[in-house]
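Supplementary Methods. Inverse-folding protocol.

Structures were first reduced to a discrete structure-token string of length 157. This string, shown here, constituted the complete conditioning input.
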């Protein structure tokens, strides 16, 4: 079962980063390459523990849906979502936020199991793990841009 860990330093307070990461509209803005949008469940606002959202996106040229549920939340430090239905056999995505001197350290841990047994394992090695790593890194970078633009500290003192 592949585990992808992506770390991103964001020059913004932990609360801003945490709230942006669980904001449905911001998720859509940070995944424009795959045209993600919420189509069922919670379709706007901030996700809370117990919330379910169905995302529609285009991956590998194929439009698909994936439903995830937020199973744990410890504001503003962590939240965890898991796949309920979708193309993966399963996944767990842990979003962690750690205060740093210069802002917030965001850590995404994405643990997944591909469908199709041995064929899925081959797909992981050939392209899927690299694709998901790039997807998480791109989303984190876009979230960083939004957070840092939103939090422009007054440098005049």
């Amino acid at each position: 079962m592949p585990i992808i860990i992506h770390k991103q330093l964001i020059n913004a307070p932990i609360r801003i980063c945490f709230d942006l990461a669980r904001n449905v509209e911001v998720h859509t803005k940070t995944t424009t390459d795959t045209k993600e949008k919420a189509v069922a469940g919670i379709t706007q606002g901030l996700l809370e523990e117990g919330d379910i959202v169905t995302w529609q996106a285009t991956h590998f040229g194929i439009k698909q849906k994936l439903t995830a549920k937020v199973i744990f939340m410890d504001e503003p430090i962590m939240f965890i979502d898991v796949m309920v239905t979708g193309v993966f056999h399963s996944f767990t995505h842990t979003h962690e936020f750690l205060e740093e001197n210069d802002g917030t350290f965001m850590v995404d841990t994405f643990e997944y199991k591909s469908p199709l047994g041995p064929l899925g394992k081959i797909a992981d090695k050939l392209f899927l793990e690299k694709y998901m790593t790039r997807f998480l890194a791109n989303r984190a970078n876009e979230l960083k841009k939004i957070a840092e633009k939103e939090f422009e500290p007054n440098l005049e003192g």
